[in-house]
Amino acid sequence: MPVDTLNELVEIGKKKLSDGFDASPLTIIETTHIKSITHSSRLPMSGFNSPFVGWTVDDVYEFFKSSIRQPPNSTEGDWTAYTFIILDQQSITDKTLLLCCDAPDFGEAGEEVVLKTMRLPFTKGLGEWVGLELLNKTPSEIGSNEVMRVMPPSTMTNIEYNQENMTGRVATPEIARRNKRQGIKMAEEKGETTL
């Protein structure tokens, strides 16, 4: 992967996702020894050797689940719980990324966990990545102007309401996944699956 392509993605991430901070929230993974990574990617990146050359999407997904994903029963963690991004040869030529996500979606049965992949331009992909990771969107809602809104948010638990606001705690990924599945099920039962 040319370092210019990586620098471009990290720069877009810094502008789109950093909310005014000086760092990008993106981490270009350069080793399979995840515990050795101490900070997100910084510009300019110099050399890059991917440890994932020759890996399939399924290979990367298995590595994500075993080594990167935030623990399902903990709110502690430095990594994502549902999403990851792959850059490949096509990314070099057309500035797209492969957004990979196993967040709950319409049409999935029971506790089924299905990996979905979407090829998107860098800027669009990073924007959608946030919505998917926060469970504000489902993968099938990518590209739609209408999104299923569930209250309370899937990522909260122990919710209390008063006249002015809602309070609660951050849900573990396991509870958030369950909450999102319940919201999707309720929407499907009401026939609200067409957006």
Describe the structure.
By secondary structure, the chain is of the alpha+beta class. It contains five helices and five strands, in the order ααβαββαββα. It has helices at residues 3-17, 57-68, 89-94, 122-133, 173-189; strands spanning 83-86, 96-101, 116-121, 156-161, 166-170. The strands form two sheets. Strands 1-2-3 form a three-stranded antiparallel sheet, sandwiched between helices. Strands 4-5 form a two-stranded antiparallel ribbon. A hairpin with a 4-residue loop joins strand 4 (156-161) and strand 5 (166-170). The radius of gyration is 18 Å and the shape is globular.
Characteristics:
195 residues; alpha+beta; 3-stranded antiparallel β-sheet; 32% helix; 14% strand; two-stranded antiparallel sheet; globular; 5 strands
| Major sheet | 3 strands, antiparallel
Portion of residues in helices? 25-40%
The parts where pLDDT drops under 50 for at least 5 residues are: none
How many E strands? 5
Beta content: 5-15%
> What gap, in angstroms, lies between the N and C termini?
37 Å
Order of helices and strands: HHEHEEHEEH
Question: Structural class of the helices, strands and pairings?
Answer: alpha+beta
Mean pLDDT: 80
Q: Biggest sheet, strands in spatial order?
A: 1-2-3
Radius of gyration: 18 Å
Principal-axis shape: globular
